[in-house]
Design brief:
Two copies of one chain form a homodimer.
Chain A: H1 2-14, H2 20-25, E1 27-30, E2 36-37, H3 61-66, E3 74-79, E4 84-90, H4 101-105, E5 107-113, E6 116-123, E7 129-135, E8 143-148, E9 155-162, E10 168-169, E11 177-186, H5 188-191, H6 202-210, E12 212-218, H7 227-233, E13 240-244, H8 251-268, E14 274-277, H9 289-311, E15 317-320, H10 341-363
Parallel strand pairs in A: 11-12, 11-13, 13-14, 14-15
Antiparallel strand pairs in A: 1-9, 2-3, 3-8, 3-10, 4-7, 4-9, 5-6, 5-8
Chain lengths: 365, 365
Amino acid sequence: MRHLLLIMILSFALSGTGIATVSDSLKYVNATEFPLIGKGFADTQNRYERLPVRLKGKTRPAVWSLSKNCAGLAIRFRTNSPVIGAKWELTGNVTMSHFAPTGVKGLDLYCLKNGKWQFVNVARPSGKTNKTVIINHMEGTDMEYMLYLPLYDGLVNLEIGVDSTATIGNPQVDSPRKDKPVVFYGTSTTQGGCASRAGMSYPNLLSRMLDRQIINLGFSGNGQLDLEVAEVMAEIDASCFVIDCISNVTEEQMNEKYIRFLEIIREKRPDVPVLLVENNHFPHMYFDQTIFALVQQKNETLKRIYAEQKKKGDSNIYYLKSDKLIGNDFEPTVDGAHLTDLGFLRMAENMYPVIRKLINSTLTD
Amino acid sequence: MRHLLLIMILSFALSGTGIATVSDSLKYVNATEFPLIGKGFADTQNRYERLPVRLKGKTRPAVWSLSKNCAGLAIRFRTNSPVIGAKWELTGNVTMSHFAPTGVKGLDLYCLKNGKWQFVNVARPSGKTNKTVIINHMEGTDMEYMLYLPLYDGLVNLEIGVDSTATIGNPQVDSPRKDKPVVFYGTSTTQGGCASRAGMSYPNLLSRMLDRQIINLGFSGNGQLDLEVAEVMAEIDASCFVIDCISNVTEEQMNEKYIRFLEIIREKRPDVPVLLVENNHFPHMYFDQTIFALVQQKNETLKRIYAEQKKKGDSNIYYLKSDKLIGNDFEPTVDGAHLTDLGFLRMAENMYPVIRKLINSTLTD
């Protein structure tokens, strides 16, 4: 009976992903042939990484390791294929108890339709190496695609599969626009935990809403204001820096490093808007009094740091309160702290007007 | 480096669940001492199952197997403990690529606060047998709790852990109300795939919104209008029957069995409202033309069946169009078909006024 259940569940898990014979018949093209967007640094050790090789051995091992997760990266291409598939090999084949494997290590395909990025389908992971059909039975007209890479795992290799008679090539539309990206620095939430698929992390949602590339420097549990990360961040010709890291630091760490972190950015980017984001009002803090006190305290500290930096003459620093960022029904997390797609969409929708305004102020400079 | 990454990810995965020593210090009480809600039948083979033992060997093995998943079941209790934990043993320890383990086989705790059920935290699964702290550092006042059971796995055993000096006992408030439940018959979506945690499946959301028990007869991939299931459904003194199964059946199966399925319910429950729900507009059907045609076709067939049943004199049958059920941004699924928490909340919010009206009409009979 248990055997039968597993078969049924396997069939549920596989429904819609297409059959093996279809993915076998495709023509595969290495994704190195197409532009990789959302990358902050050209000089990474391997293509699908997020920090420059200069930081190897210089930043904490945890940060370095997490920089190999592909959060925020995406492949852009164009094809007239009626079917699209993918082969990919993961570095870690990571598993987590509160996070769907599709979000951790799957791929997420969007298509530019009527000028907007529209969800097509997800590529479900099955192990360290993966091969699957993402979508089938399409019209077969030439369209622009964006394939988001794994949020919480790294890539050894990625190939995109199309019908053997189809054409596949470089995008012809600059979307999300490449100029002056928005840089996000932060935590597991910034990195995208626990979105059901990569396109639903709040930075990726904002990228589509703003039609602008984002650079994701979210490091799960390790958005701890590492100064060498600020140094490389400051190299990026950004339209806006969003710093959303305080759930990963203690009050002591904030007092010790936050101002210095900002100063390092200001040395190279004196006029770029910097948005400081409060700790989300974690739903479980309305029961756990220790967490409640911690969140309140850290948000008060952030308010003080913001005032201090402003007083020093920084006129391009901004503050985002978190009290309404993820709604007020206590439902948008999986575990009190980590957002689901519901929480991510709310967060992106609430941040969108704020960031759009900041970006526009930069563009009119 | 990979080893380090795993440690970091483990720490991310465990953050907030409390440390082992806390869960070890708790006093555990078997959940058999507390009421189990959401159960349609008293005569099940084991406590945490959804179909009566009479159907064993009579219904298809797939349906029988899935009836051992605990979707829609919840334990009600009351405690003044400042900490709550759980020990549970699963029947299958099921894993799926598009579904967070917390939703598949975790537990989900809610508390009645100011007359409303509010999310407290989730119990994260770690294997076939599990032990974890769900919430800590609470005030320690006497409160009503509801613990949702796994959506896609079965339970061998469940114990609730509280502080050794705390009291734990039966609920004193009848919420969600026991009288005349709403019965849901359907698919993986009805069963709750792919919610991040059990409380976010649409029937469980509706149970809280309506303050009414629901009976979940969703059978992943197997909501195929099995007539013996209709027979036992009809035994339930329901306030409303919701039939949301057509993504699991072919047009042929609909033509062959849908009317008979309704007749069986009508033989025992001539006046109870029955709501027929269309197939959701799957976001990936706007790319996959085969799926688009299938969904359109089955919804047309359902419309015809509804008209036919109404024409026969059934004045308590209702029809729910799906075109706006899950919004129109194409984002609320993990894989085009299965809803995330975002999709489930939208579906519940859109169904709520419809079902509330149907229930009220029953109550004023």
